[in-house]
Amino acid sequence: MLSRCKPRTLFKSAHAYRAFSSLLRSPITKDYAELVRRAPASIVVDDSKDLEKYNSDWTGQYKGNSRIVCRPQSTEEVASILEYCSREKIGIVPQAGNTGVVGGSIPINDEVILSVERLNEIHSFDDINGIIQCGAGCVLQTLQAKVANWNHLVPIDLGSKGTCMIGGNVATNAGGQYYYRFGSIHANIIGLEVVLPNGTILDLMSTNRKDNTGYDLKHLFVGAEGTLGVITKVALNCPRLPSARNVAFLACNSFESVCQTLSLAKEKLGEVLAAFEFMDKQVLDQVASEKTIPLTDGKKNHNFCILVETLGSDREHDMEKLESFLEQATDAGHVVDGILAQDTRQVSIWEIRESCNPIIKSKGYNYKYDISLPLSEYYSIVEEMRERLLPFKGDIVVANWGHVIDGNLHLNVITPGKFEVDIQIKNSIEPFIFEYVVAKGGSISAEHGLGQCKNNYLGKYAKSKAAVAVMRSLKDSFDPNGILNPQKFLPSSNSKN
Amino acid sequence: MKILVGVKRVVDYAVKVRVGADGVNLKNVKMSLNPFCEIAVEEAVKLKENKAANVSEVVALSVGPKQCQETLRTALAMGCDRGIHISTDLRTDYMELQSDAVAKLFQKVIEEKEKDIHLVLVGKQAIDSDCGQVGPALAGYMSWPQCTFASKVDLDGDGLLVERETDSGTETIKVPKLPAVVTCDLRLNTPRYATLPNIMKAKKKKVDTYKAEEFGVDLEVKNKVLEVYEPPSRKEGILVDDVDTLIDKLRNEASVIQ
């Protein structure tokens, strides 16, 4: 999840503004007036309005000082705003649902916030080909409900589905619990409409799954975190809604048994395996304070619990596979206990998994990390981290959960009862965790991206000098004035990377 | 005491139902155990675990196509001992097979196949037909006492003490002697998860299959369905930016304020 980084200084007034680069300037009154003229639904800060919800993120880590939220109601209005800001050299922060965890959608100073929330029309759904075309501001849950009417589903599912918007999901290449089964956004994106920083509308919308004509430009914008262009429309592949769903909650004694169960699941469940998530005892203990864990070892929680979901087209067939897998996993001793949720209660099993994040957040200060590691190294970092933190006085819990099937671990260090960051604890975790991950060939940000939190680690812990150089030249080519998300995603200009 | 539990295979509660030329479209639609039947199974298994009840066996009964065997397996995995499947390809969502025929089939099972049933537990209604008639009709045919919408069931001497929920409050009914029919409401219990050991055991439990025609019951439709249609769709609301616009719309468009 979120990686903790150095606290940002807040600039309290426009006059104390420090330009991002020699190119950009702070917006002034005439700019606000002009932007409102170009996008009438925009909101400017005054005595009766504040932009609190646009200027801050849900984790409470980031706070911007923007004085305007542009809310364009059409692609043309987006183009008009970008054309103006590009010409006037004013910074822009594109924002969708604002549910990110790396501060990618929060202004660093008083950049103009460009919210896509009004681009929320669902243009069409082709239920024979399974392709939805909609505006970037459509809330994910709304899309899920819409396509469910025709027995389809959206290939991504996240805990934040009630708030996040598809434009943001695409811009961040969001992962989620069905990544293994349905593939990444890259795998499911059929078309995009993007507005380039100079105001050019790039129409890459399509309903063709196969089209080998020229460079596949849309993929550049997927995961670019709003730094190359602003996504205004999306065409996405939607698979058929499976008619058979099973959710099992299993208990294991060791992480090795979790891995063996995973291996068996892939072998026995094959194509119907949809999700395989794990939670360790430390996070279960925290969750147990608010929810009933359906499987316990007497009065204690098990060392590890796994959530396995199957999705298929034939209930009998899936049940046969599931029973065979469960029987073998139990006989071999990998799984020590388990339950199968009947239909009405499958949601409550998922709620246990999805509540890990909010419950942990409420307990104390979270040092959050979202890493990718090879399965063989996956849990050893947790054990090392616990060792490293032993010398510290007071309660420190290292709670872990994640998409073990994708090798994606959410490692969280919590100080229960204490809500302030402790620099000494932080320095004990970083840069150790990044160096460890890099040494084992993993990723320091599996799905959460870079934003303004991990961008300065790009060159040091993630990509080679040559790769970063190519990224910079792409950025300069698309956005020569650097107006989109300045000082984010790529290492900032004053960083040594 | 021997308990008979009715379990119905219905369209899953979360499915968005679509209406076609011949009624509700059931093709490729997710089906599951009727939620109220699940509550009935849980109550039966709870009674079995209660030593004072002295339950010898819990038998689950389902009427429908061959996929009902899966529904029965779920009931077995929750703790029922045996299953009976009455096989028919008639639609069980009221379009073809209706409550009266189902109640008569239950009666035949009790009179011919499972002669010593002391208690019948069924869900208060099925979420596809919403009739709520099988329990009361069966009690009528058997001349047994009936308690519907049970929210609490306790043993009381040779009989039961049942609390039932109504719109005006809860009433307590004493059933002096079994056998009886009880239909189960939402607040009666929270159904258990099927545990792995029970799922494995369920595979070995016996399920007997009979053809619906075998019983000599009239399966013909008694109430003809004239038309099935979806309710008119709700018009989408709009977002307003401020209170003044809201008042304006309430006054001039919705005409709900002066």
What overall form of chain B do the CA principal axes indicate? globular
Widest sheet, order of strands of chain A: 15-10-14-11-17-18-16
The helical percent of chain A reads 25-40%
Low-confidence stretches of chain A: 1-19
Oligomer: heterodimer
Q: Structural class per helix/strand content of chain B?
A: alpha/beta
Straight-line N-to-C gap of chain A: 23 Å
Overall residue-averaged pLDDT value of chain B? 93
Report the sheet with the most strands of chain B, covering strand number, pairing sense and barrel closure. 9 strands, mixed
**Structural classification of chain A:** alpha+beta
Query: What distance separates the N and C termini of chain B?
Result: 67 Å
- How would you sum up the major sheet of chain A? 7 strands, antiparallel
Helical run tally of chain A: 18
Percent of residues in beta strands of chain B: 25-35%
Helix content of chain B: 25-40%
Radius of gyration of chain B: 22 Å
Number of H- or I-type helical stretches of chain B: 6
- If interface size is counted as residues with C-beta under 8 Å from the partner's C-beta, which chains form the largest one? A-B, 28 and 27 residues
Which stretches of chain B are poorly predicted, pLDDT < 50 over at least 5 residues? none
Series of H and E elements of chain B: EEEEEHEHEHEHEEEEEHEH
Would you mind describing this structure in some detail?
The complex is a heterodimer of chains A (497) and B (258). In chain A, the strands form four sheets. In chain A, strands 15-10-14-11-17-18-16 form a seven-stranded antiparallel β-sheet, with helices on both faces. In chain A, strands 5-6-9-7-8 form a five-stranded antiparallel β-sheet. Chain A has 18 helices and 18 strands. The two termini of chain A are 23 Å apart. Helix content of chain A is 31%, strand content 21%. With 258 residues, chain B is α/β, with parallel strands linked by helices. Chain B has six helices and 14 strands. The N and C termini of chain B lie far apart (67 Å). The relative contact order of chain B is 0.17. The interface between A and B is medium-sized, with 28 and 27 residues. Strand 15 of chain A pairs antiparallel with strand 13 (194-195) of chain B.
